[in-house]
């Protein structure tokens, strides 16, 4: 089966190409009676829109969402919710000269290999623009998990090698402030350095990678479906399905490989777990602690610097990708990460509800 | 839905508890006409069995597999293949004293939270023994991908902080030799140090973590189903669903976060891709290069050292897990990683076959 | 999971309410490279639109379809195809007075029981209008099966107890003419009688049921996935999911219960099967003969005659459903039946392609 | 995907061939804490075993079930339940002479067309013996729906054209007695005539078809998932997936085609629905009334009478199927129908629980 659906009870199917008519999502399996307003979704979409130094895309998209079904008198009805975002600023003409050439680091080559033809307009379905539908659907999921007291928060911890100073973030409350920030970075000083670095990269015609962390607060114990649909497995898949993510960590992540059992185990006392090396998940099931995830994002592949490549006839070409592109997938990816986590958690909440031993 | 099935066309459903009657897998969607013998599966299972310094489990399991259906006259028939492995060495009595206590780092607490009751015999379904069914099913998958020229190879690159010397591995051929080695480690000298480190940890009553790498050789371009079932997303899920894995990297992995676009992009010439930073996957679809994956495994949680914990009544307890347990999930996890990759690749091969533009 | 998706490789997800903004379908898993034009889909939708004596709905719907994604330069790209049909003639005000009352034979009562709230505007998602999305998606499926030489033809064989004279239909060619007819009835004389009967029922403020037959021509042997997704099982489900269908027969159908084995078996000679009692399916797999299906449709429940019912507060009420409604679900259901069969066959074609022994 | 799994939350995967090592089912998604004993399943299997005049199979099968996983201390644990039934009486030698010939009315031809090879031992997976796994899984499902107060009862209403006298069955209590009867027929006098008819058919070397009805008692309103997984659609699929079923009716079934709306609608009063023409399902959702279903079964295809057929080389042959076979699929199919309904209802109960508006 084609892979445009995620979730098993709460199911999201997305569709749409970067320069097609529109993008959208169908959310099936949303419980009835949930308050849902266009505004809820619009706010999430607005957070995803480019702004500040990082963004230099000339494309202007209003990203106005329409709810076409599944909501009546402000509440979900239990029927599928269709969300539509028209592409108002699509202008494929800029891509015409690139239609026969494989842009390095993009899906041009692999889409052609897979499908035998491809929509070359701005990357088609392989464009980061696809994530607009994820964010819209994630906003629906957010309403479900919020009812259960769960909050998902993503933030930037590194761009181009500049990392935040963790001593400055002493509480979850500190983290909540990140949305005030253009880079969604909890350390304002680091953010300033990041902006300089981004500006330099842009001038060089290059791009930067970065790191995003996600905390899930208030998640009850008991979510996750061993042995394959473990919570960590489903979260990893959801995050890895985002275009630029090349690594996913949970809890202490890569560091566990160097730890001893006596260091990595989270011991328990009457006050709960003494530590949270596990990142809130044990044996694939949430343990009631905060869930910690970290994703490593590659630099945006579209760069002005000259690169070697092939065209569709196998001829060697050089390419300099003109036009103005984002320099870094961060911060736009931050709300996308949140959306994916929202979706996975909403699904697992319902999955657990279905089989809960009462 | 419960999460004991993986795959969409090639579908594997596993079942069984550590100290129950048996474990097994049902493989549905295997194409007909594939040569399949008990021996093929047995060899994979034998590779997973404990041996050498790392293992000190006293449990002796023959892990003899029976093919109960779906194979006729040495060939698959297209009907479901049922694989059965009896638990010959199960002895739950050793676990009786632990039945009301939460072992730190294990699923005892979360299984009870989720299901309201739990099979406490040796971890029940949360035991690493569950992976025996994965390896059996993976051996079936291996027959499918081998027909397509694909080979999956996993090996140990670090245990307890000791890493291999990459200068010593100059070719894929070198890697193939790893199976001769007890630790599946391509650097024999590092393996010697690892064994010493493992022996020390055992004496301390502690355990160690480690790193496993997986290379997929010969994979054709065009596999993977954007936007959610991208190849990297499905591989990450499959690996993260293995008990001790806490991080998954693809290609340059965590390092991409520090790279510039001009460094991370794989440029092309007539001889193909000049580099393979992407690890063989672009936009979620294989590009014909080798697929590189890396997983970081936490130390085995069952340790002899004293730990603080709670019992099921919420009373504080100390625990020292007696008996002899493995000191490190490596090397047993190596064939499990291979099995999971085999399964994902077999599934995606068939998915691509279904929609291929001819 | 909610049930708005059908198919496993070729997957159709529909959404939309009778008097909401729009209705639509997302078709995922359509192979790339299929010629697809808005016109193809529009023709199918036009065939479903009410016309002639049977229809008296005052609602005027243009049913104009938009293809929003998944098609590029006239060909499918392998990405999801989003189809949108705006509700231009929606006028929920007529339903306002019915919002608290359960219309007999409709889903008003059960939707409220299930979801705790309901979109009362014209039946919401339970309306027959929902089938517009099925027909649109079915037109995509039709392009796939047509490439494989398969043709699906549905036609009316009875309305209100008036049956066609089968002696008049001596060939498949005769059947093909049914689309020229307002009632899709292959016996023009019977059609005349049916129209009289329909007119009488309308005058009485009542409605009529009927029977539709479906023939699948040119279907290759080998489609169907035992033991649960047998071809007959999937076809039965697809047809029974249409609102008014209360019985489904395959081949000799209900008559087989009275037959002996020597009568019901289809013997074979070099020229093929001597008979087709089985209706083209043996052991759940197509045998290369024509597939015969028959569905029995109940009369439309909305009638002008007075009926007893309850309101949402449990108070007894009488109801006379004013406004003009269709008198019979036939012929509008005829293209819906074709659409559902198209979808099932397209899915099974791809499923067989995935595992075919080459 | 191959079709050996049914259900979306409560999922049953069956496997096994008629003359293979064993048959079985994996039940995933069963809620934890359900009392389950081998005895519960064994009773259901015993009811399916041949007995009385209808059966003349010489094969003796104990059909002893083993629960291999998912149950601990008499309760389900929430992990997959693996059920195993060894084939103790398999003797494929009798089929050796039939291995290259297509038995009329059987799946021999279509399995070969589909898979390119086939297990010819007693029909392989296409054998009615496959249903042993359905019955075992259905017994697990029965425990779930019984907790919700739902009871499923199937019984014979016709064999070889002899129908029961409905005047004799005046209450649901009368129906409950059917299990005392060899033919599961609620009219003992009709049963006597049926037995004579069966005996005659056997002597002629022929076989008979029949009709089975199913009543679901105590089903709550609100189950079923429009628009594709409607309760009637899923029930129809489940029943049509049983080998010999060629037609499925719900409620008034085929008769609705001749009714007027004023006759077919079930009006409501304070005491509930005045009639039950709908058979307990409105708009695909249960309405709290009894669910009525009826299936029409073809005669068993294996008959002693001479028939024309082909062998695998396309040569014309005559065939007389020796050995002793059942004369009629009834009554063995009766518990199979119950099992399939149990499974669908258990699944929909959990599906509704997942999204219920609280």
Question: Radius of gyration of chain A from the CA trace?
Answer: 21 Å
E-strand count of chain A: 18
- Return the CATH topology of chain A: Chorismate synthase, AroC fold
- Residue fraction in strands of chain A: 15-25%
The largest inter-chain interface, given as chain pair and residues per side, is:
A-B, 114 and 112 residues
Structural class of chain A: alpha+beta
Give the helices and strands of chain A as they follow along the chain.
EEEHEEEEHHEEHHEHEHEEEEEEEH
What are the low-pLDDT stretches of chain A, counting only 5+ consecutive residues below 50? Answer: none
Largest sheet of chain A: 5 strands, antiparallel
- Helical segment count of chain A: 8
Q: Can you offer a commentary on this structure?
A:
- 4 copies of one chain form a homotetramer.
- Chain A has one domain (5-355): Chorismate synthase, AroC fold (4-Layer Sandwich).
- The longest helix of chain A is centred in the last third of the chain and has 23 residues, at 333-355.
- The two termini of chain A are 36 Å apart.
- Chain A has helices at 38-48, 108-115, 131-147, 172-176, 188-204, 231-240, 261-264, 333-355; strands at residues 5-6, 11-16, 22-28, 65-67, 71-72, 75-76, 81-86, 151-159, 162-163, 210-217, 245-250, 268-269, 272-273, 281-282, 285-286, 291-297, 307-310, 316-319.
- The mean pLDDT of chain A is 94.
- In chain A, the strands form 6 sheets. Chain A has a 5-stranded antiparallel β-sheet, with helices on one face. A 5-stranded antiparallel β-sheet of chain A has the order 9-8-10-16-11.
- In chain A, a hairpin with a 2-residue loop joins strand 14 and strand 15 (285-286).
- The first copy, chain A, has 358 residues and is an alpha+beta fold.
- At the A-B interface, strand 1, helix 2, helix 6, strand 11 and helix 7 of A face strand 1, helix 2, helix 6, strand 11 and helix 7 of B.
- Strand 11 (245-250) of chain A pairs antiparallel with strand 11 of chain B, so a sheet runs across the interface.
């Amino acid at each position: 089966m084609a892979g445009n659906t995620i979730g098993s009870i709460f199911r999201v199917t997305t569709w749409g190409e970067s320069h097609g008519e529109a993008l959208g999502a169908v959310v099936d399996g949303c419980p009835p009676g949930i308050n849902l307003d266009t505004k809820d979704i619009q706010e999430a979409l607005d957070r995803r829109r480019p702004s500040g130094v990082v963004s230099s895309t000339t494309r202007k998209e209003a990203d106005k969402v329409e709810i076409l079904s599944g909501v009546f008198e402000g509440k979900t009805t239990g029927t599928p919710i269709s969300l539509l975002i028209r592409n108002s600023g699509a202008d494929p003409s800029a891509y015409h000269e690139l239609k026969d050439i494989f842009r390095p680091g993009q899906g041009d080559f692999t889409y052609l290999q897979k499908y035998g033809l491809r929509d070359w307009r701005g990357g088609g379905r392989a464009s980061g623009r696809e994530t607009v539908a994820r964010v819209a659907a994630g906003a629906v999921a957010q309403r479900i998990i919020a009812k259960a007291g769960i909050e998902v928060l993503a933030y930037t911890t590194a761009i181009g090698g500049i990392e935040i100073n963790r001593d400055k973030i002493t509480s979850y409350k500190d983290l909540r402030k990140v949305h005030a920030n253009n880079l969604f970075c909890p350390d304002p000083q680091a953010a300033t350095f990041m902006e300089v670095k981004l500006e330099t990269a842009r001038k060089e015609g290059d791009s930067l990678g970065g790191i995003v962390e996600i905390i899930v607060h208030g998640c009850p114990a008991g979510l996750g479906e061993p042995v394959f649909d473990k919570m960590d497995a489903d979260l990893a898949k959801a995050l890895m399905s985002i275009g630029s993510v090349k690594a996913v960590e949970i809890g202490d992540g890569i560091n566990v490989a160097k730890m001893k059992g006596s260091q990595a185990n989270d011991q328990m006392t009457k006050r709960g777990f003494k530590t949270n090396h596990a990142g809130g998940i044990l044996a694939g099931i949430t343990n009631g602690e905060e869930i910690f995830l970290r994703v490593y994002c590659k630099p945006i592949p579209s760069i002005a610097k000259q690169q070697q490549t092939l065209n569709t006839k196998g001829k060697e070409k050089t390419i300099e990708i003109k036009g103005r592109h984002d320099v870094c997938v961060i911060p736009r990816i931050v709300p996308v990460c949140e959306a994916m986590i929202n979706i996975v958690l909403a699904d697992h909440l319902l999955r657990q509800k279905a089989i809960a031993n009462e």
